[in-house]
Structure formats: C-alpha cells, structure tokens
Design a protein that fits this description.
folate biosynthesis, 2-amino-4-hydroxy-6-hydroxymethyldihydropteridine diphosphokinase, 167 residues, binds adenosine-5'-triphosphate, Alpha-Beta Plaits, globular, binds 2-amino-6-hydroxymethyl-7,8-dihydro-3H-pteridin-4-one, single chain, alpha+beta, 28% helix, two-stranded antiparallel ribbon
C-alpha cells in the first residue's frame, strides 16, 4: 500500500504557507497537486473562507496509517489546536483514500466519509485525476455532478496562488 489522495485545508493565519508546508514536509512523495481553491465554508458557515487543495502522494514505505500520522504531524507543526468540530483551523490534512483500502476504525475511516458531499475535495481531485473513482462510491465526476450547484459555485480556483514552496 503506498498511494494516497490527501485533502488539504486552511482558514486561519498564513493559509497558503500552511498548505505549502505539506508540500515541503512530504517532499518527493508528492506526485500531483491541484490548483489552490478558495472555498465557502461548509459545516460551520460562520467562519473565514478556506483555501483547499488535493494532492496525490506515493511512497511504498508508507501504509494508510503512516499517511494519517504524517498528516497529523504536519497539522501539529502548523500549530493546529483541536477545538470546534468543523471549525476554523490552521491546517487540516484528511486522508481521502489509500489504494483500495476500506476501514471502519474511527481513527482512520477509509475512504474518508465526508468526501462524496464535499465540492471542496471533489473539484480539486477531479482536476488532477479526471478519471478518479472513490472506492465504494463511484466516479468522482458523478459525485460532483450530484451535488447542488450552490456547492460547486462556492469553489473558486486561485491560479495566483501556487503550492510550490519556491514560487
Ligand atoms: N480518513 C481520515 N483522515 C483524517 N482523519 C481521520 C480519517 N478518518 C478518521 N479520522 C480521524 O478524525 C479525527 C478528527 O479529525 P478532524 O479534527 O480533522 O475532523 P474534522 O476535520 O473537524 O471533520 P472531518 O473529519 O469531517 O473533516 C482524527 O482524530 C482522525 O483520527
Ligand atoms: N470549504 C471548506 N469548509 C470546511 C472545511 C474545508 O476544508 N473547506 N473543513 C472543515 C473542517 O473539517 C469545515 N469546513
């Protein structure tokens, strides 16, 4: 097991810097990264807009738990404080899917159960993997098409922001 899709989000502080810290932290394991998107908050709507992106990572030495731990270490490094569910955060790294693994362990649910309903994940994922399939749920393009237009309209590309740390 080695290939994972990670969803990144930030809506506090140096949002772009926190997303970039994931690129720096995961280094050569990052195989593809989406455009950065500015997105309207879901869940708790009275909070600042998020920057979201999705990346594909590959490392034969890491299994799904290792991807979770890597994401949590990056969240800690970004000074993340766990407070309100779905509330504001400096950095959120969600493991969307890892190869075909399914897990119902609450510490690591796979695929991530929020994925089918989140345009902020589906839009950037589809950008880098147009034929992506979410195991157990079907093609990502179909999941996105099934969402209300208002959800898709809340996801705006920010081509002026780059996730390459040296740009
Ligand atoms: N696929 C997954 N990716 C990341 N964390 C997960 C996953 N499945 C379960 N978790 C667990 O979720 C817990 C809470 O995560 P977090 O605080 O990021 O939730 P949230 O971002 O508020 O909500 P959501 O998980 O719906 O995006 C973590 O302790 C983590 O172990
Ligand atoms: N647009 C958007 N909204 C959110 C996000 C996110 O990443 N993007 N993350 C949340 C906490 O998991 C709550 N709400």
């Amino acid at each position: 097991m080695s290939r994972a899709v990670l969803s990144l989000g930030s809506n506090l502080g140096d949002r772009l810097g926190f997303l970039r810290s994931v690129m720096t932290g995961l280094g050569p394991a990052v195989r593809a990264v989406s455009t950065v998107y500015e997105t309207k908050p879901w869940g708790v709507e009275d909070q600042p807009d998020f920057l979201n992106a999705v990346c594909v990572v590959d490392d034969p030495a890491r299994d799904h738990w290792a991807w979770l731990r890597a994401g949590q270490a990056l969240e800690r490094a970004a000074g993340r404080v766990r407070d309100l569910r779905w509330g504001p955060r400096t950095l959120d790294v969600d493991v969307v899917t890892v190869d075909g693994v399914t897990s119902d362990d609450p510490e690591l649910l796979l695929p991530h159960p929020g994925t089918p309903g989140r345009a902020s994940v589906l839009v950037p994922w589809l950008e880098i993997e147009p034929d992506a399939v979410l195991p157990g749920h079907g093609p990502v393009r179909d999941l996105l098409a099934a969402l209300p237009e208002a959800d898709r309209a809340g996801v705006h590309p920010r081509p002026d922001l780059s996730l390459r740390p040296d740009s």
